[in-house]
Amino acid sequence: MTDSPSEPAPYKGREIPIEIEIVSDDEMALLETALTAAAARVSLAGKALLPPVFQRSARSVGSASALSKRRPPGGSEPDLEDFGLRDGAPAAKDGNAAVPAFLERFRRKKGLSVTDITGAEWCEKQMEFVLLSGKRKTTKAMKAGSARHEKLEQEVVQKVKVRIKSKEDGCATRFLNFITGAHQLLFEGFTRELPITCFLEDAWVNGVIDEVRMPVNGTERNPILVDVKTRVRNSLPSEPQRRNGRFQLMCYKHMWDKSVGENFPTKQFFDYYNLNPHHILSEDIRDIAANAGLPAENLNEILRYYTNTCSMLPKANDQLILRYELQKDHSVLGEDWFTFDPDWSLDEIRTRLEFLRGEREATYTPKQERWKCSFCEFASVCPARAIDAATSGSADFHQGSTYS
Question: Within 10 A of 362 (CB to CB), how many other CB atoms are there?
Fold first, then answer.
């Protein structure tokens, strides 16, 4: 653990330049919008793209965030006790009764998020409750963390309003987000809130990387991925929390390297999400793309710019950074610099996908980490309580708030 400076050297001693970039506020908002019915009209807050991003003098981009919340796909939300199986759910590997295939049931339209995978690493049973209930309680700590990320984004992003009219518009916006953020990284050495979409281990996964930095030593050109965590307490988190944060960044490292090192499966993407690659994008989106030096009429053309951009990017640095900040004043508590572990992280991803695909039942958090239950909003209805009571003669679980 080292207390490294929280900002890259190129910005020390001077104001960070403002970039206008199409970057999502809400990790899943854009893709959720993109994958709803084509007739749906969603109002988005975004940033206007201005001069060509391929010119070094470019200082503008555009960002989009949903102004209204959408109900979960499928209509009404099931009760916590509703463990009913979807028709045709696969049988568990051990031959026992079928278990819910959460990926197919709840994430078919929009794909998985990195948070789904890391949430399963924290506790699969808790993740099962979250998916079945359709929501998770938002705590004060979570709200404060979201506000901090928004503030960090505003330091390098300026927002205006745009409107998208189709799911193809939504997807085009997300890929434009990545393109403009990547060029900000290449020309300025720094970007924030970078959306990323990847076909990882036979599943479509989406996420937003908090920060990406270019190394400052002048010779190393592999970008450094950074995740910012806010803390209520003036202390560093427990090891399970650090492990979960490290796993999150390793997921992004896998996604980044796969995105820049392999051809994007364009046809598979169109087919999976039922997108029309030749659908004419809205005038707003076409204007934004043209002003960014990316003239395009449809999503297929936007994806060509995206794949060209990915081809210019090197793989991410094996050194990853978790930065911990105190919520009340944003002071840096410490930076956890750690090395990418491809074998452990890939095995962990595959393990969590087994659960999310319904190939096995959810596991409980390990016995030595059962203290997590004291901060889980589902503790009162979780079977782990009865299991522990049967094995130890007590069940001292206290309902509280989920760790942020």
Answer: 19
Q: How open is the CA angle 17-18-20, to the nearest 5 degrees?
A: 140
Residues 6+ apart with CB under 8 A from 235: 333
Give the integer Cα–Cα distance in Å for 318 and 278. 38
* Other CB atoms within 10 A of residue 87 CB: 4
Are the C-beta atoms of residues 282 and 302 closer than 8 Å to each other? no
Provide the residue type at 212 as one letter: V
Degrees, nearest 5: CA angle 219-223-226: 130
Question: Alpha-carbon distance 319 to 141, whole Å?
Answer: 28
Separation of first and last alpha carbons in the chain? 20
- Name the residue type at position 352: R
Contact 207, 115 (CB under 8 A): yes
Q: Which two tokens stand for residue 138?
A: 């938002």
Q: What is the pLDDT of residue 187?
A: 92
Residue pair 46/62 in contact by the 8 Å Cβ criterion:
yes
Percent pLDDT > 70 in the chain is: 65
Residues 127 and 132: their CA atoms lie apart, in Å, by 9
**Count of residues for the chain?**
404
Give the model confidence (pLDDT) of 142-166 as tens digits.
666 566 656 665 566 666 567 889 9
Distance CA 132, CA 149 (A): 28
